[in-house]
Amino acid sequence: MSDASHQQELERIIGRAAETGMRWSRQRSLLLLDEKSAGQFASNADIEIEEQIRWDLADAFPGDSIVGEETGGSLGDEVTGWAIDPIDGTSNFILGLPIWGVSIGYLEHGRSTLGAIVLPELKLMISALRGHGMRVNGSAHIQSQRIPNVKVIALGENDYESGPETDARAQVLRNSGFAVVRYRCAVFSLGVAALGRLSGYIENGCGLWDIAAADVICNEAGMRVETYKITEGRYHINSQW
């Protein structure tokens, strides 16, 4: 996955997914909800978008392994293939908040090498190919000057790390001079952090599909990125400027 044409094809695929997401956003009264666990929802929009992405990936990259948040799959022992999050921030999406996104990442032997994130309500598409920099809305991105003394960092919440543990992490960061926000959307938080609009993002216990694209994107943006597997299906990410 070192060919720039693959990046362009991925941008096309995730662009189609964004259009489907916006169609559902305009007709939220038709959403059917499934509460997978306490506070964790999936909808018929999530399912349709994931199925569309799977179809498009299978057409463009036949034979590649695919794993998705909603309909499963496996990347095998080598952890090589595509990881899909059809809608990250589903609760926000359901409520009509604009803080949600779609993520598609490609991993080679567990290493994120190609990825794209789209934030449809914000009209932002961010993609990266390892070693080739970051693209925003199809064009090479030049990082604007950051304001380092404005320290705002986002934290993720999930059903793996308890609320008190996340709260304790937040307090440590506040003691270090950060303002702490929680948008309940890893894809949004990591995407805007890569654009320099946050100081970073930390989550302990997220899914591979949450970070498969963001890992390479944040690396290519120039951030310090630490990711590792905690246990089966659960990952840690700490991406900061």
Secondary structure: elements and pairs:
Layout: H1 4-25, E1 33-37, E2 40-43, H2 44-60, E3 66-68, E4 72-73, E5 81-88, H3 90-95, E6 101-108, E7 111-119, E8 124-129, E9 134-136, E10 139-140, E11 152-155, H4 163-175, E12 179-181, H5 186-194, E13 200-206, H6 208-221, E14 224-231, E15 234-240
Parallel strand pairs: 3-5, 11-12, 11-13
Antiparallel strand pairs: 1-2, 3-4, 5-6, 6-7, 7-8, 8-9, 9-10, 13-15, 14-15
Provide an overview of this structure.
By secondary structure, the chain is of the alpha+beta class. The protein has 2 domains: 137 residues, Fructose-1,6-Bisphosphatase, subunit A, domain 1 (Fructose-1,6-Bisphosphatase, Chain A, domain 1); 89 residues, D-Maltodextrin-Binding Protein, domain 2 (3-Layer(aba) Sandwich), CATH 3.40.190. The protein is built from 6 helices and 15 strands. An 8-stranded mixed beta sheet has the order 4-3-5-6-7-8-9-10, sandwiched between helices. It has a 5-stranded mixed beta sheet with strand order 12-11-13-15-14, with helices on both faces. β3 and β4 form a beta hairpin.
Poorly predicted ranges: none
Which term fits the overall shape?
globular
CATH superfamily of the largest domain: Fructose-1,6-Bisphosphatase, subunit A, domain 1
Tally of individual domains: 2
Describe the largest sheet.
8 strands, mixed
Any guess at the CATH architecture of the largest domain? 2-Layer Sandwich
Cα-to-Cα separation, first versus last residue:
27 Å
Strand proportion, as a percent range, falls in 25-35%
CATH classification class of the largest domain: Alpha Beta
CATH topology category name of the largest domain: Fructose-1,6-Bisphosphatase, Chain A, domain 1
Helices, by number, come to 6
Q: Strand order within the widest sheet?
A: 4-3-5-6-7-8-9-10
Order of helices and strands: HEEHEEEHEEEEEEHEHEHEE
Mean pLDDT: 94
